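Deliverable D5.2: sample structural annotation.
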Amino acid sequence: MKILINDIESYRSPESIQVSVDDRVEKIPIINGNCVQDYGHISSGDTIEVSALFHEGKVDEIAALWENRTLVSFTDDAGIVWENCRIVVKSYKRDQNFKNYILLNFEVWRV
């Protein structure tokens, strides 16, 4: 299934999509052992890393959302809608077979 950033649709299903969870646990070495400091899983700190193909005009729209720090809704490839997210563009490159399409690598931050 395609993904959506607000109403901006990807060309096809994402090349990759991965969720990195914000689990705030830390092992602290102490004399004769270890101590664990655990603040739990903070779901608002989770990030979704996406690599997807978009038409170049759509990439311009996504770049504007990123530049303006606009909060968006993100619909993943399973149809789950994530509200109040921020898009963080990481990199992009033109598709070798379709010159008007760009492979965009970005993160979706839940805030």
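Annotation notes: The chain has one helix and nine strands. The mean pLDDT is 94.
The annotation will be released with the project's public dataset once the embargo ends.
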